[in-house]
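=== RUN LOG ===
request id: a7f3
mode: sequence -> structure
chains: 1
length: 355
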Amino acid sequence: MLGAASFVVTLGLVSTLERQVSDAFDLRRATEVRIEASPGMDRSWHREDRLLRVRALNGVESAGWRVMPIEIGLTRLPQNPPVNVQLMGADPQAVAVMGPRVVAGRAYDWFHETTEQKVIMLAKPMADRLGVPRPGGAVFVGDTAFTVIGIYDAVERRPEAMLGGMVPASVMAGIAPTTPTDVLISTVPGAAQLIAEQAPVVLWPERPSALRAIAPPDPRTLRREIEGNVTRSSLILSAVALIIGAVSIANSATAAIQARTAEIGLRRAVGGRPVHVFAQLLGETTALGFLGGFVGVCAGVTVVAVVCLWNRWAPVLDLWVAAVAVVASATTGLLAGLWPARRAVRVQPVSALQH
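=== RESULT ===
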């Protein structure tokens, strides 16, 4: 019973935990792709119509231009000493890819991008350093004033955005026309590797090899290794539990033979054949294993259900696990009874009656 219960509990909980691990990996699976040109390449691939085709690829959520960060001086007032920050340009789609959490104000939109409005989004550490408590004020890049449209305190991707701020890509192109521009793409879970192969061809079909796609490695291999290790460990523990159960049944059957020697001898004396005694004892141990397995499976399923409800997990337990546990328990009882039953058929009727 204990062996079957441990078998069901370990496999049930492992299957449930595997589902939880898989869901966690799916949520955190690589969903970002960055496309950049090789050094020295021209900017002929910077075409909005091609970027629109990237956005139309199956699996792409957002895709936009980003002007790489540069170090630049920002001031609260023109006469103040500048504070060096990392300033980048990003169109609204690239901003969506980075996913800033705006705590004050809002993100700029396509109106600001297409009309080259002098607006800026500041990371909260930089806003505090510059003394900008809320949106609506201005900061200066040289003598040019930028209206602070929003303040953010975290980003989902591209942590370098926390080192300064973001302005529309069209505005940044005027500030630093020679700064490289790349493409930021966010994808649905599992599509990053495929988009990394397709996007360079869509952006520059004449020379796709001149573009380099950078996508974080997909952790599916790591997930499989973790699931495989956990499953192997649980199977080993279950096998040990079943072996312990088999030894327990064998010990109890052997002890029962000593206590039932007179009964065995009487049955032999009244005409019972060795095969009858052998089948009786083997049937008893098999039935004992089957009954213990059935009770253990019921107890194991109950434990799995209670643990999953307690942790608010969706229980995952295949029916074949319960069937295998019962069959394995019955088989264990059968094998455990072989040696005691063999010893029982060797009992001589005369010596058994004398005993």
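=== NOTES ===
Residues 2-23+221-354 form one domain.
The two ends are 33 Å apart (CA to CA).
=== END ===
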